[in-house]
Amino acid sequence: MSKILSENFSLQPNPNPVRQEKYGENGRGDILSLAALDQARKEITTWPGYRPTVLRRLDGLARAAGVRTIFYKDEGARFDLGSFKALGGAYAVASFLQRQVEALTGNARAPGSLRPDC
Q1: What is the reported pLDDT for 69?
Q2: SS3 call for 102
Q3: Is the pTM of the predicted complex or chain greater than 0.70?
Q4: Distance between the two ends of the chain, CA-based, in angstroms?
Q5: What number of H helices and E strands is found in the chain?
Q6: HEC states along 49-67?
Q7: Among residues of the chain, what percentage have pLDDT more than 70?
Q8: pLDDT tens for residues 36-80?
Q9: How far apart are CA 85 and CA 74, in angstroms?
Q10: Contacts of 40 (CB under 8 A, 6+ apart)
């Protein structure tokens, strides 16, 4: 097995483990809520080519780091994007376009209805 970590590897504690503000303050509750998560999930699962993300175990890295388990959320195969965490940006753009269409036309449309194949 090849070496996973450099000899200088060390775990660093989070310097700010306690929030100064409550989680939902300053607008975070509007975008980081369970309702917003549910809305995003409902939209993204309708996109052509959707399939669940694969979680991969990184047991060697976990052993080297001295932790029980490390999982890697491998989104590289989803929608053939070859990219990690690309769906958040795509969903944000779709939601932005939805709001723009509604502002210009007064017609509220689901982001999926903005696709050219609809």
Answers
A1: 92
A2: helix
A3: no
A4: 49
A5: 4, 2
A6: CCCCCEEEECHHHHHHHCC
A7: 79
A8: 888 888 888 888 878 888 889 999 888 888 889 999 887 777 777
A9: 9
A10: 91
Q: What's residue 79's pLDDT? A: 72
Provide the pairing of β-strand 54-57 with 71-74.
antiparallel
Token duo for residue 84: 């990690």
Between 117 and 95, where is the model more confident? 95
Residue type, 20: Q
Dihedral, 110, 99, 89, 45 alpha carbons, nearest 10? -10
For residue 66, give both structure tokens: 């001295």
In one letter, which amino acid is 39?
Q
94: tokens are: 């779709």
**Class of residue 91 by CB neighbours under 10 A (exposed 0-12, middle 13-18, buried 19+):** middle
